[in-house]
Amino acid sequence: MKKIVILISGRGSNMEAVVRACARDGWPARICAVISNRPDAAGLGFAAANGIETKVVDHREFDARESFDAALAQEIDCFEPDLVVLAGFMRVLTDAFVARYTGRMLNVHPSLLPSFPGLRTHQQALDAGVRVHGASVHFVTPALDHGPIVAQAAVPVVAGDDAAALAARVLKVEHDIYPRAVRWFIEGRLSIEGERVALTPSEPQWLFADIAGEGV
Ligand code: NHR
Ligand code: GAR
Question: All domains of the chain, ordered by start, with CATH?
Answer without folding.
Answer: 2-208 (3.40.50.170)
